[in-house]
Amino acid sequence: MEETDAQIIRLLSADGRMSFTDLGRATGLSTSAVHQRVRRLEARGVVRGYQAKLDHEAVGLGLTAFIAIRAIDPSQPDDSPERLRHLDAIEACYSVAGEESYLLKVRVPSTGALESLLAEIRAVANVSTRSTIVLSTYYENRPIGG
Amino acid sequence: MEETDAQIIRLLSADGRMSFTDLGRATGLSTSAVHQRVRRLEARGVVRGYQAKLDHEAVGLGLTAFIAIRAIDPSQPDDSPERLRHLDAIEACYSVAGEESYLLKVRVPSTGALESLLAEIRAVANVSTRSTIVLSTYYENRPIGG
DNA sequence: TCTGAAATTAACCCTCT
DNA sequence: AGAGGGTTAATTTCAGA
To answer: HTH asnC-type domain location, by residue (chains A, B) (predicted)?
Structure first.
């Protein structure tokens, strides 16, 4: 990865709405050159899209939790990520090394909603769950380092 | 939270670079009306910024891990999040309920880098660590549901 | 790959409702 | 709060180096 592309990526990681004009100024390139580079990074899949960072509390999703899951029947094929994909409370799904096989990050409005989500996860994926409740978020989704 | 604002938030959560013109079309409002609403959401802190979603592998940060940390000396004031803030491999820091007090999400290039990061975390914050390595990411930072 | 210029479209600000 | 209009600025495409 070239230094100019790396710089563009750092800038867009910190401000996803930065204009091509400003990106050009920051990198010392013309507007059309950065435009070309950003489009190429998007086409290659290095930049996968853009997203607003939200105050989840204000949006009514004030409860965040991490849910580690473990298959109950190890002989069954384990396609939990696909089985759980439709649950839009699940913001992220990772397969992990360790005692459990997957780790989910979820956002819900309340403990009641978390309770029903857990029931649904267990039913849909035939897994046991271990939840870790987030008490407060100090920082999150920080831009990549520079 | 009003339905129109909620809709704008969902749209910007899915596409942070969506134009005010398109937001207007999608919500049935004029360009200037959505413009006004988005600026208000930003001013209130509901929208905290915008960010490019990256392929971290392509950017040279192919190793993701979750690190749960626990204070070694419970009599010391526990300001780990501030002590660790300067480490830009740490993408997120949560305080959590459970056996450990904080959960970090980190991105590094290699296991070697993870090893030195762990050493630094333990030294800087005087904590013990328990790491969970991410093997693969099925989905992540999905837009909020609707 | 870059620049520079031209054409199109969007952002932004203001006023009126 | 929103619509409409006018000005400024950005995006996008293209020719040329």
So the answer is: 1-62
User: What are the backbone angles phi and psi of residue A118, rounded to the nearest 5°?
Assistant: -60, -45
> Residue B141: inside a domain, yes or no?
no
Nearest nucleotide to the CA of A17, by C1', is D10
Same domain, B37 and B102: no
Number of domains forming the structure of chain B? 2
Residue B78 lies in a domain: yes
What distance in Å separates residue B4's CA from the closest CA in chain A?
A: 12
The least confident of A32-36, A77-81, A86-90 is: A77-81
Reduced 3-state DSSP string for A54-107: ECCCCCCCCEEEEEEEEECCCCCCCCHHHHHCCCCCEEEEEEECCCCCEEEEEE
Task: Please determine, for residue A1, whether its predicted confidence score (pLDDT) is greater than 70.
Answer: no
Is residue B115 over pLDDT 60? yes
Same domain, A110 and A72: yes
d(CA B146, CA A62): 16
Q: Do the Cβ atoms of B107 and A48 come within 8 Å?
A: no
Those residues whose beta carbons lie under 7 A from strand D are A 19-22, 31-32, 35-36; B 4, 29-33, 36-37, 40
User: Of A46, A133, A141, which has the smallest distance from its Cβ to B59's Cβ?
Assistant: A46
| pTM, entire model | 0.96
